[in-house]
Amino acid sequence: MRFAIIFSTFLACIIGIEISTVRLSQAVQLRDGKVYFVQAPRLLKTTTTFNDVYVWGATYYFTVKVPSDAGEPLQQITINQHSGFDYINFDLKDSFAISKSNGEKEKLPLQITEKRKSKTISVTFNPPVEPGKTITIALKPIRNPSVEGVYLFGVTAFPKGEQSHGQFLGYGRLHFYRNNNSLFSTFGW
User: Fold this and answer.
1) Rounded CA gap, 28 and 38, in Å?
2) How far apart are CA 107 and CA 42, in angstroms?
């Protein structure tokens, strides 16, 4: 009798844990309707094709991994210039994003908007990026900043949903240098 009680209690605990795990892996949605990632995406790296100041034709790459257990697809990423002396203007119509999954790359349909006052670029994916994919956002600046130094870009990911909660992924860091051999340094720029 005592064994039956212990066994049934143990079984009830295991079933409760299983049900909780299943619910967590589907998504996290609070009573107020806010949607969260179960496992947040990760900012893997940030790079640029040219790191000299005042150079035209550069591309800034932000690579993000959406884990397979994210629970929700990725709807939007915002990139906010957090630091750096010079404000960087972007050519949004030439910016793009690609997805990589199982070695295959595909260009993603998206909409890019900019809020100059808050120095924020918003990249909205349509359709959202499914869990398990790695994406790279390629932003094309009009030109690199004219002032050398470290420029930090805060990256935030938002799951699909009307009331999605953004998860801050960290800072993408780009360092721009003054090349003393460039034409610009000849003129004192």
Assistant:
1) 6
2) 20
Question: Residue 18, SS3?
Answer: helix
Give the global pTM.
Answer: 0.79
Lookup: tokens for 20 = 């909780």
The 10 Å Cβ neighbour count of residue 105 is: 10
Q: How far apart are CA 67 and CA 55, in angstroms?
A: 35
Structure tokens at 142: 């009009």
Q: Give pLDDT tens digits for 43-86.
A: 999 999 999 999 999 999 999 999 999 999 999 999 999 998 89
Name the amino acid, one letter, at 16. G
CB count in 10 Å sphere of residue 36: 18
Contact assessment for residue 103 and residue 25, using Cβ atoms and an 8 Å cutoff? no
The conformation of residue 49, written as its DSSP 8-state character, comes to S
